[in-house]
What we know:
There is one protein chain. By secondary structure, the chain is mostly helical. It has 2 domains: 1-67, Orthogonal Bundle (Helix Hairpins); 69-114, no CATH class. It is built from 5 helices and no strands. The relative contact order is 0.09.
Amino acid sequence: MAARTADPASSRTARLLRAGHSKVAKKLVEEAVEVAIDTMHGDSDAVVRESADLLYNLAVLWVAAGIHPKDVWTEMERRERLLGMAEKLPKERPDAPLRERSDAPLRRKVVALDRSRVRKRR
């Protein structure tokens, strides 16, 4: 992406990329929430606008993470082969042998995007 070397003063994408992975991820989440809220309110024009912002921020995140869109499409094709459609995979891997399915569920670590908002537990 050419924005990596662009001037951050004139390129929003360059500013986002220079701000780091956490900022890029936070912007992606913000846009996803806006799409969801506009959907709940039934505002289809706003959903279109916010969806464009969401896709833009997803593309920036891919660049920041060194992911090429073809890798995402390859994963979607893999899921389609496994499940008959390119849907979200279940928590347990459908391609794992039965003996492994209950022992090795797919889990992801959830991390806070903004440490200043994380409250300490007493």
